[in-house]
Write a structure and sequence with these properties.
The chain is mostly helical. The chain is built from ten helices and no strands.
């Protein structure tokens, strides 16, 4: 009986220790993402650094938080900035055009304006799909040509369609946390890190698929 109790206590301690480690990781990485993305244009490299951190942890790689985060943040920095700005500009143009077509539709509900609005919505969604799938691709192919990266990301969003829709839902986590002052506290402490952790979970199979393609070409 004593041995069973000791085994139970040891197991419980290990689980509590693991839980505490993950809470610390979520909080610290969230703060790092927020701090390093304050210049706005560095948001994409910051999210990628957080994503890579959680990808490592999910694969049982115990990397130090601060040193590893800033290492990943600075890796291929110019490429990340370039990709991030291109995607951000595309999303901005898509959202603006969607808004314009919506105003046109209210003023003149013609089939042309309705089709235009739907086209813009599809365009924005497609860009979001591509943006999310650049995460696993930048993890495996950080120096890939931007246009090739975008095309491959679009292909993956169709191949893993269920994961794509799940990833879209995850994308709204930080947005939903902005609707109430109390929820903003959650955003500050674990909102962004929770999003990239979930992406690391959802895209594990995607990373494995991309790596398998690389191995097949060796």
């Amino acid at each position: 009986m004593k041995k069973e109790n000791k085994h139970y206590e040891k197991t419980l301690y290990q689980k509590l220790n693991t839980f505490a480690d993950w809470v610390i990781r979520l909080v610290l990485i969230n703060i790092l993402i927020i701090v390093t993305s304050l210049p706005v244009i560095t948001l994409y490299p910051a999210l990628l650094a957080g994503y890579k951190m959680f990808h490592k942890y999910l694969n049982k790689e115990e990397v130090p938080i601060f040193k590893s985060y800033f290492t990943y943040f600075g890796e291929n920095f110019s490429s990340k900035i370039k990709v991030g700005l291109i995607l951000a500009a595309a999303i901005f143009v898509g959202v603006v055009n969607t808004t314009i077509y919506n105003e046109f539709l209210e003023a003149n509900p013609s089939p042309f304006n309705l089709v235009g609005q739907y086209v813009m919505i599809i365009m924005v969604l497609s860009i979001l799909f591509v943006t999310m799938y650049t995460f696993p691709l930048m993890l495996t192919y950080p120096n890939t040509n931007v246009w090739l990266l975008i095309k491959f990301s679009f292909f993956l969003s169709g191949k893993f369609i269920l994961r794509t829709f799940l990833a879209i839902l995850i994308l709204f986590i930080p947005i939903l946390l902005l609707i109430h002052p109390l929820l903003i506290l959650i955003l500050v402490f674990v909102g962004m890190s929770t999003m990239v952790l979930l992406y690391a979970l959802v895209f594990r199979k995607v990373v494995e698929y991309v790596e398998s393609l690389d191995q097949a070409n060796v």
